[in-house]
Design a protein that fits this description.
Elements lengths: L15 E7 L3 E8 L5 E8 L25 H19 L6 E8 L4 E4 L6 H4 L17 H14 L16 H11 L1 H6 L2 E4 H10 L6 H6 L11 H7 L17 E3 L2 E3 L5 E4 L2 H7 L6 E3 L4 H8 L7 E6 L3 E7 L10 E4 L7 E7 L3 H11 L5 H9 L9 E3 L17 E3 L7 H25 L6 E5 L6 H11 L3 E4 L4 H13 L6 H8 L2 E6 L3 H21 L3 H14 L1
Parallel strand pairs: 1-4, 4-10, 11-17, 17-18
Antiparallel strand pairs: 1-2, 2-3, 5-6, 7-8, 9-10, 11-12, 12-14, 13-14, 15-16, 18-19
Helix pairs in contact: 1-9, 3-4, 10-15, 11-13, 12-13, 13-14, 14-17, 15-16
Pathway: Carbohydrate degradation; L-arabinose degradation via L-ribulose; D-xylulose 5-phosphate from L-arabinose (bacterial route): step 2/3
Enzyme class: transferase
Catalytic activity: L-ribulose + ATP = L-ribulose 5-phosphate + ADP + H(+)
Length: 556
């Protein structure tokens, strides 16, 4: 682990910062000491509405296939409940808190009025008025049209996203609202990432952070897609960029204000101070994405350090001093992880979600720990299976959320632990596909660092090391995104001159915590070759798209 650097700031060495991580099912707050990153207290608030997938809260309004929404009230409740509890658990005085930083899932985006009021507060029976969670994939047809048109027109921004815009991103979801609920679209004066909306609630200042603007908002080289492009998609979509109104923080580029990561978004308002128990006027850092902020928590902000944040899904992010076109990447953004470097993102739409799906639906007399123990006893390939990790669609490198999972090789002798091991291996194969695609494109991966909730499964980590044929480093915190947000808060509060210095002092990781076994790695090479064959065969989507269409028609 790198040598920790001493604190160099006017902030008291005994000051503290709060990091707040807004996840898929819950929000958590952690109180961190500024000078060394020690985590002194934390608290979790489970969302009352969790993920809204089947019907709207308090109504009979049903949602269609591939919908996933959230409630803004759940996010506010995190500020009201988790933050005060974390401060109490840490045993620090509120006046000792120097700053607050936040992170969010992305692209989680919502329509609001000009003053930031979510439209779902006004029309709760309208599905499109609610925030669309990152894993809302019902906008895939709209993403397909965006991609087809951009390719035909030769739009210069398309290669920056690996050749395809995801259905998870802002423009596809916005186009879906326009075409399926034009009244909601007309009332939406703002279309804003939750990462920026929560900062608006904390500071009273509307801003747009460079991370979500770049990765999710197609903002490249100082501009969004042109009005002409948007009008060709749909004449009513021509003015969409006007709903991405920008705030007062950062530098204006072609009329757009973009806030830099680690920057000061504003100061805590009296209302937010009442919610959190933190004094009014405390520094609030510019918003960020949960995956990208975790790089600082792992002190992995140098070129070639790929951080895989493994939970319900996996997001792979990596700084680099090189700009390249990587097929199927989610995006490459200047200053998107740390200022001064290109930030790359790729990902897998479902990882932990796949394991949970299998256990919850097919293994009533067992659990993850028991299945893991049984699977671990097997030799590589003993189950005779290979699977595709597309149960939540494919984010990278095919960028197609209408793809679905495949398991090949099952017989009457196949046991639950066989399938469980095969789907674990499938996610590792998907990660290897991403790493190899980056390296073939001239962007080397020097170190693979793992963070996230799945770190607790040691067997899973060893499988990844064996499949990737490289050591795995691991983050030294169970609260990676929240710690990363706290580190950004320390920078915004003036404790450190930049993210790199703060990460070196406050971040932590263990290098080469898992190393590959050569014999198992050789055996996995054979299975990976079969994964690649399946990947290429089913990746054109002809069969899987047809099956999904039949399902949707039958369930309509």
């Amino acid at each position: 682990m790198p040598q920790k650097k001493p604190l160099e700031s006017n902030v008291n060495a005994n000051s503290y910062v709060v990091g707040v991580d807004f996840g898929t099912l819950s929000g958590r707050a952690v109180v961190v000491r500024v000078h060394d990153g020690a985590e002194l207290g934390s608290a979790v608030h489970e969302y009352a509405h969790r993920v809204i997938e089947h019907r709207l809260p308090g109504s009979d309004v049903r949602l269609g296939p591939d919908w996933a929404l959230q409630s803004p009230q759940d996010w506010i409740d995190v500020l009201k409940i988790a933050v005060p509890r974390a401060i109490a658990a840490a045993g620090v005085a509120p006046e000792e808190v120097a700053g607050i930083g936040t992170d969010f899932t992305a692209c989680t985006v919502l329509p609001t009025t000009a003053d930031g009021t979510p439209l779902c507060f006004e029309t709760p029976a309208e599905p499109h008025a609610w925030p669309k969670l990152w894993k809302h994939h019902a906008a895939q047809p709209h993403a397909d049209r965006i991609n087809d048109l951009a390719a035909r027109r030769g739009e210069s921004w398309l290669p920056r996203y690996g050749g395809k815009i995801s259905s998870e991103w802002e423009f596809a979801k916005g186009l879906q609202v326009l075409e399926e609920a034009p009244d909601v679209y007309a009332r939406a004066e703002r279309w804003i990432e939750a990462a920026d909306w929560i900062i608006w609630q904390l500071t009273g200042v509307e801003s747009r952070n460079i991370c979500t603007v770049g990765y999710k908002g197609i903002f490249q080289d100082g501009s969004y897609p042109s009005e002409e492009f948007l009008a060709e998609l749909n004449p009513g979509f021509a003015g969409f960029v006007g709903k991405l109104a920008t705030g007062e923080v950062g530098d204006k580029v072609n009329g757009t204000t973009v806030a830099p990561l680690g920057g000061l978004a504003g100061r805590l308002t009296a209302q937010a101070a009442e919610w959190t128990g933190v004094p009014e006027g405390v520094a609030v850092a510019v918003g960020n994405v949960d995956a990208h902020v975790t790089a600082a928590a792992a002190d992995a902000v140098a070129p070639g350090q790929m951080v895989a944040i493994m939970g319900t899904s996996t997001c792979h992010i990596m700084p680099s001093d090189q700009l390249a076109e990587v097929p199927g990447m989610c995006g490459v953004v200047r200053d998107g992880i740390v200022p001064g470097l290109w930030g790359y993102e790729a990902g897998q739409s479902a990882v932990g979600d796949i394991f949970a799906w299998f256990v919850d639906n097919f293994v009533s007399d067992s659990d993850h720990e028991r299945l893991t123990a049984l699977a671990e006893q097997q030799a590589v390939g003993e189950h005779g299976l290979v699977a595709l990790d597309w149960f939540g669609g494919n984010r990278s490198v095919l960028v197609d959320h209408n793809l679905s999972g495949v398991i090949v090789g099952q017989t009457l002798a196949t046991k639950p632990e066989d399938v469980y091991r095969a789907i674990i291996e499938s996610t590792a194969f998907g990660a290897r596909m991403i790493v190899e695609t980056f390296e073939k494109s001239g962007v080397p991966v020097q170190e693979f660092v793992v963070a996230g909730g799945l770190l607790k499964n040691r067997f899973l980590m060893q499988v990844y090391a064996d499949v990737l044929r490289r050591p795995l480093s691991v983050i030294g915190s169970d609260q990676g995104p929240a710690l990363g947000s706290a580190i950004h808060a320390a920078v915004a509060a003036g404790a450190y001159p930049g993210i790199e210095e703060a990460a070196a002092a406050m971040g932590k990781r263990t290098e080469a915590a898992y190393v590959p076994d050569e014999a198992r790695a050789d055996a996995y090479d054979r299975l990976y070759a079969e994964y690649r064959r399946l990947h290429d065969f089913f990746g054109d989507g002809r069969m899987l798209h047809t099956l999904r269409a039949i399902r949707n028609e039958a369930s309509a």
